[in-house]
Design a protein that fits this description.
Number of helices: 3
Largest sheet: none
Radius of gyration: 25 Å
Helix content: over 70%
Number of strands: 0
Order of helices and strands: HHH
Structural class: mainly alpha
Shape: elongated
């Protein structure tokens, strides 16, 4: 576990150093300078167009999966609430069955 923690800390330190370097570079630029392409501090660096397209597709897949998971959790919460209400008030079950008829 210590190895994983040490590795994670090293990654965080490298990321912070890179972020600090970018911030310092952006601060050093005059306001009238031409905007640079890589001024997004949190952008994922891309090597070429193919990598960028593949990365964009992967991000879209992950976003869709996240939305699906969010929807599933929402349905599960609704079911849980309904079950809790049925446990608290048994008449709710009778009312729901009457509505189905």
């Amino acid at each position: 576990m210590a190895d994983a923690t040490t590795a994670a800390r090293a990654r965080i330190d490298r990321a912070l150093a890179a972020l600090e370097r970018k911030v310092n570079e952006l601060k050093a630029r005059p306001a009238t300078a031409r905007p640079i392409e890589d001024d997004d501090l949190f952008a994922i660096p891309s090597v070429d167009g193919a990598t960028d397209r593949g990365l964009q597709a992967r991000i879209a897949q992950l976003e869709a999966a996240g939305q699906d998971a969010s929807d599933a959790l929402g349905r599960a919460i609704d079911e849980l609430r309904a079950a809790m209400l049925r446990d608290e008030d048994p008449e709710i079950d009778d009312d729901e069955e009457d509505e189905d008829d």
